[in-house]
Amino acid sequence: MERYAGAARLLGPALLAAAIQLVGTAGAATHQLNARPLDAVAVALLLAGPVALLARYRFAVPTLVVTSVLLLGYLAGGYPFGPVVVSFVFALVSAVCLGHSRPAWVLAGLTYLGLIAVTWARSGPPSWWVLSGVAAWLLLILTLGELVRTRRERLVRERRSRAEAVERVATEERLRIARDLHDVLAHHVSLINVQAGTALHLLDEQPGLAREALTAIKASSKEVLVELRTMLGVLRRVDENLPRSPVIGLAGLDELAARVRGSGLAVAVRRTGEPRPLPSAVDTAAFRITQEALTNVHRHAGAATAAVLIEYAAAAVVVQVDDDGAGPGTAASADGDVAGAGNGIPGMRERAAALGGQLWVGPAPGGGFRVRAELPVPTPTGADPESAASSRGDGHP
Questions:
Q1: Nearest Cα to 288, choosing from 369, 363, 176?
Q2: Which domains does the chain have, with CATH numbers?
Q3: pLDDT digits over 65-119, tens only?
Q4: Local structure of residue 249 (DSSP, 8 states)
Q5: Beta strands in the chain (DSSP E)
Q6: CB 266 within 8 A of CB 323
Q7: Are 80 and 25 in contact (CB under 8 A)?
Q8: Residue 279's Cα: distance from chain center in Å?
């Protein structure tokens, strides 16, 4: 279908120009007794212009030059006046629409001067109304061509903008999934590593506790497999029954705390304010920040306890994790790397910034370490997150 449409766009104007020039000029010749009769040369000149239009897309300016020369050559030969300018008009509009505005305007001006010279040679000086009429006609044709070109360029820009917007959304989605994968793997693999070490240590002396550790390993590994399968399904887009993104939020906070307690870290969860449904992005970010903070405490802080605070404020939800350890800025990980040198804290900061929120990390007032995030939540009046964030100020709470 596209091939046929392209052929129609190419051949249609050429056939129309040939029909109008031949039939129209033959009809006009019957009223011009002083003109030279139409002969084979005249017919060839009238047909050569439409044939030249077949090359207007690839050679717009040469086609315009050819049609202009054929037009002036036909009139200079003394043949009858008529609609002999159709090929030139099509070539002129095509040149302007294809972006060759400057050559088109120059050739239109030269053709105008050529028409004046030919008319002067055939029947004396043309009248002012003839000169102004031809000039107005050429200006109208050029203006229409410029309008068409402008509209076409605007449509191209809009299509490009839409394509860039789609690509930008896809890139943001890939980054979000990458952050989710990091959080899931860091949390669950850390728990599995600690529980495996505990199980090996207690296997001979306290088999019951070793069994509990192995059970925790099984539960964590099952959950991480489920989440990875969900995320990979989103990436592959092969299973439309899977959710478009991992369905997880603060509703799973108690379960998260229970898993962390099973690894030996005491976790206390406290909620203040009036709990309410949160936008999916905010809910997921709050959970992931809490998860990453607890993972860092478990791996690096050397802490015995951690306190999680979820505060539902009027225009934001606050996530705060305190511990009584050294903090990721000074603690060393089990494998000897300096804690905090990975992607955990930058990932949390990116999640908060993506929603127009803020993240603070540093020593807690009473000792230990604190991670605090404020995530804007749109108000019922429809205020956007950025305005809600700016209304809170930029200082540390």
A1: 176
A2: 2-126 (no CATH), 262-397 (3.30.565.10)
A3: 999 999 999 888 888 888 888 999 999 999 998 888 899 999 999 999 988 898 8
A4: -
A5: 266-273, 305-312, 316-323, 358-363, 369-376
A6: no
A7: yes
A8: 23
Q: Rounded CA gap, 34 and 78, in Å?
A: 9
Q: Distance of CA 371 to CAs 115, 199, 359, 386, Å? A: 82, 30, 7, 21
Which residues lie across from 306 on neighbouring strands?
267, 323
Antiparallel, parallel or unpaired: β 305-312 and 266-273: parallel
Placement of tokens 């930008």 in the chain: 168
Which comes out higher in pLDDT, residue 239 or 362?
Answer: 362
H/E stretch holding 261? helix 253-262
Residues 6 or more apart in contact with residue 322 via CB below 8 angstroms: 306, 307, 309, 364, 368, 369, 370
Cα separation values, 346 from 292, 352, 360, 386, 396, Å: 11, 10, 11, 20, 18
Give the pair of three-digit tokens for residue 124: 């004396």
- One-letter amino acid at 156 equals V
